[in-house]
Design brief:
globular; three-stranded antiparallel β-sheet; OB fold (Dihydrolipoamide Acetyltransferase, E2P); mainly beta
Length: 114
């Protein structure tokens, strides 16, 4: 993977172009069947074979949180959580599950100031 980190975003190579995508514009990163996808709302910005853990280390921890083994979300896109923090809802209505073992840390993450 030729993506690298910058203080304000990720450099993403897609369709022959390299561009800086600000962290605030990355809504979530998901991993499924060996493929990792970086999303901007409902638009997929990049599909890669890079492991989710590698991208988790590249994004700032005060903005992004790994809620599940398959999902990293941007706190700026959370519109609501259920009362037990079992899932989060994004502006477009998309729901993401929060794993049981990450719920306590997720609550602490939400309580932090940005």
């Amino acid at each position: 993977m030729q993506d690298s980190i910058n203080r304000s975003g990720l450099w993403i190579k897609n369709k022959g172009r390299i561009r800086l995508v600000p962290y605030k514009d990355i809504s979530h990163i998901l991993h499924n069947d060996g493929i990792t996808e970086i999303h901007n709302g409902s638009e997929m910005l990049k599909r890669t074979l890079a492991p989710l853990g590698g991208l988790e280390r590249q994004v700032p921890g005060h903005i992004f949180f790994r809620i599940h083994r398959n999902y990293i979300i941007n706190r700026l896109y959370i519109r609501r959580c259920d009362t037990d923090n079992r899932f989060v809802v994004f502006p477009d209505g998309e729901k993401f599950p929060v794993s049981r073992r990450r719920r306590k840390d997720f609550k602490k993450f939400l309580d932090q100031k940005i």
